[in-house]
Model the fold of this input.
Amino acid sequence: MKIALAQQNYHIGNFEANTRKIIDAIRQAKQAGADLVVFSELSVCGYPPRDFLEFEDFIAQCYASVDRIREEADTIGVIVGSPARHTAPLGKDLFNAAWLLYEKEIKGVAYKTCLPTYDVFDEYRYFEPGYEWNVIPFKGKKIALTICEDIWNLGDNPLYRVCPMDQLIGQTPDLMINISASPFDYDHDADRKEVVRQNVLKYKLPMYYCNAVGSQTEIVFDGGSVVYDAKGRLIKELKYFEEDLEVVDLPVPVPPLYEEILPGFSIPIHTKEAGEELVTPTAKTPGMVETAASASAPEAPALPGEPAAFDREMRVSKLKDPGKIIEYLTNTENIHQIHQALILGIRDYFSKMGFSKAILGSSGGIDSAVTLALACEALGKDNVRAILLPSPYSTSHSVSDAEQLSRTLGNPYDIIPIREVYEALLHTLEPVFKGAAFGLAEENLQSRTRGNILMGIANKFGYILLNTSNKSELSTGYGTLYGDMAGGLSVLGDVYKMQVYALARYINRDGEIIPANILDKAPSAELRPDQKDSDSLPEYDVLDKVLYQYIERRQGPREIIALGIDEALVKRVLRLVNTNEYKRNQFCPIIRVSSKAFGVGRRVPIVGKYLS
Amino acid sequence: MKIALAQQNYHIGNFEANTRKIIDAIRQAKQAGADLVVFSELSVCGYPPRDFLEFEDFIAQCYASVDRIREEADTIGVIVGSPARHTAPLGKDLFNAAWLLYEKEIKGVAYKTCLPTYDVFDEYRYFEPGYEWNVIPFKGKKIALTICEDIWNLGDNPLYRVCPMDQLIGQTPDLMINISASPFDYDHDADRKEVVRQNVLKYKLPMYYCNAVGSQTEIVFDGGSVVYDAKGRLIKELKYFEEDLEVVDLPVPVPPLYEEILPGFSIPIHTKEAGEELVTPTAKTPGMVETAASASAPEAPALPGEPAAFDREMRVSKLKDPGKIIEYLTNTENIHQIHQALILGIRDYFSKMGFSKAILGSSGGIDSAVTLALACEALGKDNVRAILLPSPYSTSHSVSDAEQLSRTLGNPYDIIPIREVYEALLHTLEPVFKGAAFGLAEENLQSRTRGNILMGIANKFGYILLNTSNKSELSTGYGTLYGDMAGGLSVLGDVYKMQVYALARYINRDGEIIPANILDKAPSAELRPDQKDSDSLPEYDVLDKVLYQYIERRQGPREIIALGIDEALVKRVLRLVNTNEYKRNQFCPIIRVSSKAFGVGRRVPIVGKYLS
Done:
């Protein structure tokens, strides 16, 4: 049986464009002689549709799209993703569904069972988990059809109590098809292929795995669809960070090797490796263990005990040695992937928002330099306008470094000194400030003046302002709301400072694009004389280590201090992270490249008093 | 049995303060001779703790708090809410739990079964639903202990498949206790008492219902804890929007009237009333119905059919006549409640953030006038500084109206003209703007200059900037990012313009505080000569109607047009709402008073192309 995987980049809610794209691929697959063409999860509406799913009108448009696609599914089978109505009296009113269309009819439907509800995922907000499982007959074969997270439970994922493939295997399917919208992050990119392979090894069936590609506001889907044969061999791997379509003609063993399937097979993917062991808190936990009398309480389970597994989402970080966090964060493989993800993230944000031109403040620092280089690659140098906004405290090399960068990149740039506006502000505020000493307020006035000038030009000529803040400064609140925190899209907001340097070196891999002086000089906001980041923050190689442990790994102070980092420093950093939630709350979308980015996937109370 | 309800205002993650508060109430209840004192949901850590729950350190601190409280639970029983570890191999690693402490021991635990995962709620992100139900013996009685949403399923709530009280009733409990963190909104405030009463009527048992009070960033909990006797009579109702503690001595009927419990009893709360019927889309839905052949697909359920019930959260809007939306939105009962919620929301935001002083831009318009009056009531007039920021396009009455308002309120104010800064900006941008005609960019420059000045003063003297935008302008994007959209807290962001007027009239109920001229004049941003809101937007009485139907009721264009509103206007408004998601995404927290506020409870894709 010839099966095509169509790895496409959808636009959420753009039914016209998505349907056209799907129909084009159906025709292409038909021409290539495919029996069946497979699209990714929620392909008709794009993933994630979020609260659009609460509009009956939106669901009706999904159904109308499936209807249009069904007309194309004549002699070729088509598997598309779409929300489906759940009409039983109990349970939420939608399923996340995969529909098999053939002979212009709906031949079968599979409902997603494992609904990810963590990090950027909110599926249980909208969907009822599937509770019936049936293989779908197609051209004499039986398809075990699942959706994304369904194959991430091989029976040992504590997030779920049901393993859909365990339910389906008893109906002796001939092949597995999984349609996904599985996002990229550098921290566990290898997991996905391993999970597909482990499913193949467990069930002794070939698997066709079709993933989405493209960036949806902040979430980057990286494609990389795969086909494995029943022996666990990788037969086909589609492109990463690009659309792709491949037809695979894989002989299906008849009958498949069910007798080889090991009962109770459990994949080792979740086991901790040596050196990966986390420090467990020793704080006394309440109750049950100490008070023997409480054992007589009729319903009492064993309350305390070992802390639960750390990585709630059952993804396995590639970091194996917690002593080498910075090396890990900045290794070339990660940086190469981050580079691709950021380019796609910028490009898709602009094209899907209907914009083509970007503007940004170019300070002569490393963050704006990397952002500018990435934007030029994503949008074309003529579409990126750099504005140099020297203040009275800017050093001369700031302007010359930024000029040199733009001359190398070939993008248009302007120099607009902010002194006149800044001085008008100081003069205007004089009756209120009354000669108070220069301080943070004056620094912020400069930063916000830049924001105002950049937004003014953006509004006047139709640019989107790219934000240049990195994850280290966003974490610690080292930035000015409405000033350098302004912008429509954050390019580096999920990239720690040490990684920004690594990205700069990567961008320079074939020759100097970012001037060496920008890489070499000490980071500074240049908002007062001789200012350095290190006046306010720990050195970035220490800071980033603490931040990674706290943000990505959700470790508490005790565990981080146990890595040998100074206690006062750790507590100060965690306090900075938590007390600056109010700033990040007003920040623009951040292209997500890590396993825990600020934004939709990290939800922290603003008025909270934890570790602060 | 004497049972105390302790309705308290917690601070999320502030274990020290919360534990102290709980222990104080335990001592108070003991002095009043109570056998048992009941606290609200997740009382030890505050609700909602959000992603703090992902930190093992945070859970350990919850356990440590329960331990401290347990020491106080000697001769008095204590029911507190806390996360509890789930140690079974499958299922998420936490429960949302209610613990009964007595004789310094844990006597029993109940786990929340119905986990709200909609609107502002994310409980399935963190918790495993309870799957075992047992009454808890206490002083010879059996307590059926449930948590918040658990009692919102009486067997007919389609969001859930399990009804915890149905599970417990077979163990012949003597009384029901429910601990809640049930937030306020004006759209269905009466539901809560009705749900408690319906539980009592169904199970023929008294219910002690303890709710939280206080505002947590954007979510306002309004208290109103209640006790009903087994006959469905309201015995005690605690205060609204305030802390309270009451002891109720209710004779428990022994044995309770189990024989009277009707099997299959179903409350009428979810049935639609006449006139409330929603227009259902007539768009053809795909597949199954039309194609008889598809019936042979082995697993196919009836896919299409009637759209699911509209109000996904099973709350019932008080609006009965869709022809009278504006009357409903502005009725005195709603406005009175909104007023209380906003006062509490402001007060708690400041106190929990550790701030006492507010600043805001006072334009002479209705929005800033109402915000200022509310802030003075919440924080004290001396703690609220109004800044009048006239631009070259401000009318003279703007300043005089704003001055009159502050003279009446007695709060400090300054007049800081923005002309000098605005002209410096225009001069600075001249080489880039090159004489282009005055437009939106120049309007935004003025607005952002105000933002910069206000934030400058806030940073200099430690104020929090209050935002004055209303829900109508936030919906339509009629505002300037980093300009009038700046601020740390939005007071009116969940209040439609027509409701802002009603709030102003309410504030003036005992005498003119807000000058009549502010109420009477046509709304204007005053950013160019003779500007009026109505140049850009529909009249507010029409606009607010469309917005309410779209945002609160999630109706699509078809249903809204069917109410008799012009099609082009409806489509234009919905397009404005959806294309301005990028602006709201960077907006500050909004005190939530409606059933659907912008912010954490409404999650819409930014790059989406739906209705736009």
